[in-house]
Amino acid sequence: MYNLIPLILIIASLIVIIVIVSRKFSLLANLDVDNIPGEKEAKFKENIAGTRIKRNLVKWNSKFSQVFSGAFQGLNSSLKNWYDKLFQIKENYEQQISAHKESQDEKITRLFREIEELDPEEEFEAIENKLIEIVGLDSKNVNAFEKLGDLYFRNKRLQEAKETYEHILKLIPDEDVAKQADIYYDLAVTAKSRDNWKFALENIQKAFSLAPNNPRYLDIMFEASIMNDDKELATTAYDKLSEVNPENKKLEDFKEQLENLTKSD
Question: pTM of the prediction?
Answer without folding.
Answer: 0.61
